[in-house]
Structures are given as structure tokens and as C-alpha cells.
Amino acid sequence: MKPSNYELLVVSPFQPIALLRDTFKHVTCVKSAKEALVRLQTQQQQHQDPTTTTTDRSRRLLLIDMENEQGNIISLKLLIYHLRQGTVGNFVPLVCCANDSSDYMLACIHHGAADYLLKPLSLNVIQTMFLAAHRYSPPQRLLPSPTSSTASLKSDLPQAIQSECHHYHQLKQIFNQHDGIYQAVINMYANPNRPKKEFDLASLSTDRKTALERRLGEWGFNPFDLSDLDLVYCVSWIFDQAFHLPDLAPFRLSSGDLCHGYHATNPYHNFYHAVDVLQSMYYLVSRMGFLHPHPPAPTTTSRLHNRITSIDILALFLICIGHDLGHPGVTNAFMINASTSLSLLFNDISVLESYHAMLLYRLIKTYWSDALGAPLGALFRKRVVNGVIATDMALHQDYMTKLKAFGRTSIDDKDGKPYDEEEERLLIYAALIKCADISNIARPFEVAKVWANRLVEELQCQGQLEAELGLPSCLNGFGLPLDSKGQIPLAAFQHQFITKVGIGFFDVVGDIVPDLKNWAHMARQNASLWQQQQ
Ligand SMILES: [Zn+2]
Questions:
Q1: Per its Swiss-Prot or TrEMBL entry, what cofactor is needed (predicted)?
Q2: What is the rounded distance in angstroms from the CA atom of residue 363 to the CA atom of residue 258?
Q3: CATH of the domain at 508
Q4: How remote is the CA of residue 461 from the centroid of ligand 1, in Å?
């Protein structure tokens, strides 16, 4: 099929450029989306002639010149709406514009454009425009309205066919609206309308970038004096280390979106925590030899050496930075006791983690669905969702049991049977992400102390809210007597968590990844310092 056989309808207040006429045999130009609609609807009526085939109609390209962003996003939406309604036949919607903002380009794609062409249009671009018709999947058609001709014909159908038809339409209606709950959850908990900052990474000086990179290579990483822009740079720098790995060239990331996904008002579960968890994972995988340590440092080998691929590193980084997305600053117990919509939606099972995974998957779908492709995309989703859910501390004992067994056996043997490769991968992800999530207990004591204070502050705040709502208090959930001010005793609280949970877990994972033995050692040192403060 030659490009010249495609029919091109251009929506533009300007004259179409001559190159378009040179490439396509049939070029029609209209001034506005409304004019385009009239033309398409007229053609649609003509196409109801049974001698016209669908193939003919799918060879139509519609090029919308976005000379005015605001007006033409509306034009694009209007045309896509009619395409979904089925009132204008098939066409492949393309947009062209001189605006090179990636956000704007993505907005056009999200609103239904098959491709975004940067103006001025060159001959090369014009000659490959027809390829969009081969890549494009038309949006799902909406249901015909009850007054449409199909509905009026229904009464002539036999009863059995009518009820089958009703069931079919009801199902279709449900699936057409499947995004509704998802959007409602985001609106309720993630506040998508709050103002978003622009992060201009180019505005950071070379000295500042070098200083941040040096800090990212240190175990004593302390993010609390960093600005949001610094943190966004840290995230993009760490991901860039992964993007240099084989097979990861097509992946890119908008770190600003991740920053906006966290509530800055949470004392603990905020973007600092996400970046901190990401940095500890970066530190760990670079010491394991999967990335170059920065600055250069000795690396160790582990039994995972041939098991972790570049896509695993990417998934682990993504889980770290996204594992608490949209965190409301309260625990699962609060969500369940308060009968929040989220706990009802997820049936009280890993409520927050299910929600974080849902938000994270939304970003993956937006930015990486093309780079991942179909079979890997589904696997990647499973791994990322599983990794985020693993951070639910309610599952901790299960993971301890599984990891103890995994650490004892040879890597290829589970109760005499070989490990399923994917099952093993999910377990390794869970082990590493869980270690990274609680890694702050093993940071140098002065840094660990800040994290501990912030966690207690967040819990105290939840305790206040629980008292107001008459709910069971999280402050009584640790088996520790509250101090004279009714607060969780910080030193005892930390000592208890480190000795009963942290050290044991680092030791168990340390049987698989020897570097974790160092984390256990540092956590032990901190535990004795906390004990001295009790
Ligand atoms: Zn976390």
C-alpha cells in the first residue's frame, strides 16, 4: 500500500503545505473541527452503501493542525468523541504542532491522537504518516443511545434475542465505564488537582549535580536538606544508571510525576522516603555488581548473580520509588477500622499497598507500555504489583518463612523440586524491596534517628485522629506503655522493631545476598544505641 493511496483530511486554518499534496493523492482541507465533522458525517452516510468496504475507510488520515493548543485539544476531543460514537466512520487521527513540550504531546496522545508530528513537517515525516494507520487501534465505540436506530429496531426482534442483546449491551456499558472507580479513587485519595511544580533539572549547576551524585553513592545518604528539585534529580540520576544497561534504551521516566504522587505533608510516607528507599536499592544493587558503584567500590557476588537482568533492576527501582505512591499517612489498620472506601474496595487485604500498586501501574501504562510490549508488559505488571504488595508488614512472617527455606536450599531446589523461575524472581524482589523499605534503621544513627522521629510523629497524628473518631488507637498497637505525654516511647519503639523485625530479616536475606549481613550489623549497632537511650 503506497502512502499516496491514503486519503488525507487536514483540519487547519492555514493552507496545507505543498509537500502534503505531493505525497497524498487526495488531500482535503477544512478550517475547523466542525467543518471536518460535517464532511466526515456526509461521507459516513455515503459509506452506508454496502458496496463500500471498511478497508477504504481505514485508509483515511485526519491531520489536525494544533495551532492553538486550548482550542484544538477541544477539537481533538470532539472528533474522537464522534469517532467513538460511530457517527463519523473510521479515520486515523493525527495531530501536528510546533509545541515540543512532552506533557502537551502526551496529552494529545491521551486524548486519542494516533501520533504527534512536530511542525514544521518535513518530507520524511509526511512520507511515513501512513504508517500510523497500521499501528493505530481505533477507540472502543460507545453504546448507541436508546433513541438510535438500533434501539428502535430491537422491538422487532424475538424475545430471546432481545434479552441476549440487553445482556450484551449491559456488559458493554460496564466495560465502557470501567475507568470510573479507578478515577474516583484517585480523585478521593491522590488529589490530582493540586498545583504541580515544574522541575527544570537543567537549572541545577554542575557542582550541585556532582554533590548530589556523590551523596547518592554513600550509605549515610540523608535527604532532609534536599529540595524537591534536588530529589527529582536524584531519582532521574539513579534511573539513568539503569537506562544505560542493555535493553533499557527505550525507557524514559518523568521523575516530576513521581514527586507529585506523594503527599508532602506526611511526616514519614512522603517523597523523601520514596527517594531514600530507591537510594538504598541503588546502593545495594551496585554493591552486588549489577551497576557501577559511584564512586568506584568493591563489589560482591551472590547466588543471584546470573538471575537478575537489566529489566529486573528497572522494576526494582520502580517499585522502590512508587511503593508508597499516594500514601495518606495512616496505616492499613486505620483504613480498615474507619471502613474507608479503599478498605471496602480491597476487602481489607493489603489495602494501601494495593492502592499504591494501582497508582504505580497507571504511570507504567502511561509511559512504558510501548517500550515493554505485550508479553513483557503483563509480566512486568505482575512483578511490580507483587513487589509493592510485599511491603505490607502483615505479610512479613510469610516472607520470613519462605526466605528462610529459600536461603537453606540450593537455588535450584525447593523441597526436592526445582524452583519455578518466576516464583523465585518474585521472592527475590520481595526480599530486596522489603530490605530497602526498612533500610533507614541501619543508616548511621543520626540519620536513622530522624526517620524514627518522623515515623512516630506520623503515628501520633493518626492516634489523635483515631481518638477523635472513636477508633482503636494505633499507639496501643506496639505493646509498649506510652510515656507521660501519651506518646510512643521513641527509643523503646525503635529498639523493639530493630531487634524483633529488622535484624532477623536482614540476616535471613543476608544468606542469599551477603551485603545484607552488613545491614544487619549496622542495625545491631543502632539497636544498642537506642537501648542506651531508653
Ligand atoms: Zn515504604
A1: a divalent metal cation
A2: 9
A3: 1.10.1300.10
A4: 18
250: cell is: 527505550
Q: What is the CATH number of the domain that holds 36?
A: 3.40.50.2300
Nearest to 185 by CA among 319, 356, 39: 356
Does 178 count as an annotated binding residue?
A: no
Question: Per the residue annotation, which of 260, 263, 269, 495 is the catalytic one?
Answer: 269
pLDDT digits 0-9 by tens, 231-256: 999 999 999 999 988 888 788 887 77
520: burial class by Cβ within 10 Å (0-12, 13-18, 19+)? buried
Task: Using CB atoms within 10 Å of the CB of residue 195, give its burial: 0 to 12 exposed, 13 to 18 middle, 19+ buried.
Answer: exposed
On whether 429 is known to bind a ligand per the annotation, the reply is: no
Residue 269 appears among annotated catalytic residues:
yes
Do 78 and 214 reside in the same domain of the chain? no
**CA of residue 324 to ligand 1 center, whole Å:** 5
Q: Is residue 181 part of a domain?
A: no
Is 269 part of any known ligand binding site? yes
Q: What is the pLDDT of residues 106-146, one digit of tens each?
A: 888 888 888 989 888 888 888 888 888 777 776 655 544 44
Tell whether 398 is in a known binding site.
Answer: no
Q: What are phi and psi of 31, to 5 degrees?
A: -85, -25
ipTM of the complex: 0.99
Domain hosting 228: range is 201-533
